[in-house]
What we know:
By secondary structure, the chain is of the alpha/beta class. Strand 4 (54-59), helix 2 and strand 5 form a beta-alpha-beta unit. The protein has 2 domains: 8-82, Nucleotidyltransferase, domain 5, CATH 3.30.420.40; 119-233, Nucleotidyltransferase, domain 5, CATH 3.30.420. 34% of the residues lie in helices and 26% in strands. The strands form 3 sheets. Strands 3-2-1-4-5 form a 5-stranded mixed beta sheet, with helices on both faces. It contains 7 helices and 12 strands.
Amino acid sequence: MAHAEPSILAVDAGNTRIKWGLHDLAVWRARGVVPTTDAVHLKAQWHAAPRGTKVTVSNVAGPDVLAHIERAAVECGFTCRVIRSEASQLGVTSGYDDPGQLGTDRWAALVAAHRSMPGLKVVVNVGTALTIDALTGDGRFLGGLIVPGPSLMRRSLDRGTAGLRLTEGVFQPFPASTPNAITTGAIQACVGAVERVRRDMEAHGAPPLGMLLSGGGAMEIAAYLPMPATFNENLVLDGLVAIARET
């Protein structure tokens, strides 16, 4: 009798949040988010996962956070694998000079994007950092940008200037108040970076046919993007599940 494959617990540990999802190889059975500062409490969130679950981790949050994740996995009776960015995997080929230097969250997102959307595409993840990556239809990662995300841009003004305090504003084409100028400026800067990548792809004979959008700050910029975007809040987690199933 064939044994059923174990469930997969995908964990995306970012600078601000740890997103996780329990996948039974058909659907997501449970999902959750905790602040990265609360990584020590992950075990309590994983009570629904059966013993033998395979934990597959993308970690860009540093060694202390990873230690908490690995400890929680061991205490729950799970196996744990931390992915690395490869030169080639699941049809995606890295364009980085040193493939291992690419953040594993970006790599997992590229794997998921290649599997979910055909053709040339831009892959945008909006978190503490904004990443914008160019991917061809045959899986070649051409490269991408990393800039501060909109919330980090606003916080940097609060910390780095004497007269610009962090207050909530709204988007305006021509902002008429300082809070609106800060909010609009952060959004426009992020959208401008996305537009720059789109234009560069066009200039190099690889015009994108689609855009994939993910991340906790995605909805802040979605309405202002230069082309329609498909939102997938689980893009990195989807990539982690695909990588876990490969081995």
